[in-house]
Amino acid sequence: MIGKRKKYLYAWLILLTCFLLLLSFKSFAQAPDVNALKVRLQKSKPDSARTTILLQLSNYYNNLPQPLAHVTKALVYASAAEKLSISLTDHVGIGNSYLAFAKAWRNRKDSIRAKEYLLRAKNVFVENRHFKAAGEAVLNMEEFYQYFGGSDLNIRIAYYQEALVLFRASPARDREEATLKVLGDFYYVKADYPQSLSYLKQALTLVKHVKILDKESLYDLLGSVYTALGSLDKGLEYGLLAIKMTEQGKDTTMQACAVYNRVGITFYSMKQYDRARIFYGKALNIALKNKDVLTQLDLNINIASALITSGRNNECIALLKRVEKKYPPEILSQNMGLYYAMLKCYTKLKRFDDAKSYLSRVDVFSQNTDQNSNNQLQIQGILTDYYVATLQDKPARKHLVFFKKIALAHHNPVALANAYRLESRLDSAENNYVAAFKNYEIACVIKDSLYNVRKTKQIALLEMLFETERKDQQLAVKDYRIKLLNSQANLQQLNLKQEKTTQKLVIGGALLLLILLGLSYNSFRVKQRINRQLLSQSREIENKNESLTELVSQKDNLLADKEWLMKEIHHRVKNNLQIVISLLSTQSSYLDNDIAFNAIRESQHRMQSISLIHQKLYQSENLALVEVCAYISDLVAYLRDSFDTGSHIAFEMDIVHAQLDVTHAVPLGLILNEAITNSIKYAFPDHRIGKISISLKHKDENSFELIIKDNGIGMPEAVEIGKRKSLGMSLMRGLSKQLGGQLSIESNNGTILSVEFKNEVIVKVI
């Protein structure tokens, strides 16, 4: 019986694994129209949408019925997707292209390259924190492991544990729940029930994130584990919850069949054999509808086991004979359960000659079965029972030792109690009554722990709650229908009253309407005359409004064109100045004369100061004004970089927030360029450490003052500052006059240059 339950849950494991793998390839699972995809590919731009189309084409060829013939095409599209994704720095596209590569190499039976690309995909996803996609890639590794013949359950568990860590790092709680559920199922198959229960309890905390049928499978697994651990009340509780989900979801698949069968197994373990047969019968009906022959055979054997244990041996023999006739030998050979049941039933009836014909088959099957599996546990129990009943002490003792060993390894209290019961019978047959009594006492203690009165009451309460909830749901449906019928009747009565009231209102309204029509006709004629006059006036107003609207629109268009032209002018002026600067730079590379080279370089700086103004203008919303604080900061930064002052010259700025028009910004910029350039070049010889300060402030209410000073070596004493006729000095004097100000230069612990000009040149103070 335990082996049958294990087989159903192992089938569950396969279904869950397939479900996870289908989700991991859900972006590629569709079979789109390949011609339509190729048309879309030709029309697409080189972006992530094209990457998606390329991946769809690759996976279309990967998923064809005979993919080996189309692997080359799949690889070509995967390669194109990879290259495009790399150029776009699209990490998801890169990872998905690696998945497409892996599937193509899998179809070509190249396990090494397939695994290599899956590992690349996982690493790309992890490095860019796409943890859900990384988890799906790991699950693909597990699927490929099986595809290439891998069957080690521990390796499969390791893949799912790695995927679990990645899903937990992502927001994908549904994927985390599904992975925990599969891990619980894996450990159930390994008969490590405590570890299985640990994973399933973790999945239970995430149950709110999953659908009804996913809850159904989780509750079913929990019930199976609790039953295997001997906690039958918990097993039944979760089994009934699984049935509730089955009925709510109207599930008629083989999943529902497994749920009903598992609850039947739990009732069987509780020795409620009639209840067990009811649920086996429900499971059998679903298997018949789904035409699942092997499952039908299993369920008939389960029903036979319930009949044997309840002492209805003749009914059991009749059922098993019908099953043996109904199913062909090739089907019966795939499931030894029929022969187990026959052996057990004939042993119970003490028809040992009939039992002996099935003994050899079961014995041979035992030798070819995993020595620590649940099937082996069931076989050893049946064989021990047979040899004890036939008083064959030596083989009975041999199989009993083996039976007890497996029961202890599986933590199966039901099987262990049966082992001690059989050992008691064997000791009694050998006249070892002390050992027989001791083993019988141990068997009773184990049974009492499983079937005490409290658990019986809990089981009855669970059944009562389940049935009560079902009846409450049925009553709620009936109450709803009654209320619906009552509301419909009330609505009909209300409609009749409303119809009568409506008739009276219609008659009264008709009379009132006739009276009002007479009164209204005269006012209508008057209003008609007034409306004609208003209409004429309205049309005249509308025509004027349209003319005004058109004029405003033309004005807006002209202003927009003007703004665009101004931006374009400033942009082109700036570009032209940059071209001239570039030409000067090119020319300077051919000069051997330092004087000429320095002259060209100074001209470049002057043009750059003007270019910065035009750049600020076309980049700002206001095309007429330059924000002086930002402009001076950029100019200083440019000169610092041009002369590579490093850290030995510090710049200190205190600039008022103001805006200048172009006619004032240009001379101000040129003065700044000349003054700062002179300070950098001459004030700090031999890389002396120094500071250049620039300030533009209100001097009083009506004027501003520009000051550029440094703490360098100052001007030579022999030089008369006011009479110097260098180009730079001439420029600064001329530009100061253009600003309407006066240039002043003095040497006092460095050089101080100042220009004072009137407030009228400042267009706007911010």
From TrEMBL:
Signal peptide span: 1-29
Q: Which residues cross the membrane?
A: 505-524
Domain named Histidine kinase is located at 568-761
Species: Pedobacter fastidiosus
The keyword Metal-binding is assigned to this record: no
Swiss-Prot/TrEMBL catalytic activity: ATP + protein L-histidine = ADP + protein N-phospho-L-histidine
Q: What is this protein called?
A: histidine kinase
The record ties this protein, via SMART domains, to: HATPase_c, TPR
In terms of InterPro entries, this protein maps to:
HATPase_C_sf, HATPase_dom, His_kinase_dom, Sig_transdc_His_kin_sub2_dim/P, TPR-like_helical_dom_sf, TPR_rpt
The EC number(s) attached to this protein equal 2.7.13.3
Q: Where are the TPR repeats?
A: 257-290
Species lineage? Bacteria, Pseudomonadati, Bacteroidota, Sphingobacteriia, Sphingobacteriales
Alphabetical keyword list: ATP-binding, Coiled coil, Kinase, Membrane, Nucleotide-binding, Phosphoprotein, Signal, TPR repeat, Transferase, Transmembrane, Transmembrane helix
* Enzyme class per UniProt: transferase
Coiled-coil annotation: which residues?
527-561
Q: Does the keyword Membrane apply?
A: yes
